[in-house]
Please model this.
Amino acid sequence: MNLITSLLLGFVTAFVGITPPGLINMTAAKVNLKEGKRSALWFVSGAVIIIFFQAYLAILFARYIDKRPDVLILLREAGFGVFTLLTIYFLWIAKKPKIKKGKIKKYSSTKRFFLGMLLSALNFFPIPYYVFVSVTLSSYNLFSYSMTYIFVFVTGVVLGSSLVFYCYITFFQKIQDKTDYIMRNMNTIIGSITGLIAAITLINIIRYYLR
Model:
């Protein structure tokens, strides 16, 4: 494994994790439509800074639990319970999301920058996502927990995230109909993803106790 591989893995995992329509990328696209690309890029800059620290802290936590199999299995069991509950909620309880077409008020670039930081900080998905990714990659000897590899990997995460956000800003009008369809069916999509993760987690738990 080398630093280029670590950079590419960070880039790809960020690209995969952020590509589905979500609060941050959809807000960035709508800010661009209402206020222009400059405001949208300021918004994205704020969001990416938080993503950097979220990914970095997630990997440091993953390095700790990777040395503690007892903590890892405990987190897997807790994660299985959480993802199972989320699957039940999104598939059978949550109401269908409505697409709001309201106008976005125009704010200064500074306010957009801090709004990006705020929305990104409120999004806790990256932390468990990068913990899971780094632990999985490490188990296949595709990732090293040395500080150099961690920094390069996180740099790849920032680059991948920035590219996805830029694509949303640039091409949102062309893909708006498709993203609207995805947003209407977001509960089913999220529920299916959490259900799949719950199943994989359960398999890993069973393997741990049977070995």
Q: What stands out?
A: The chain is about 85% helix and 0% strand. The mean pLDDT is 82.
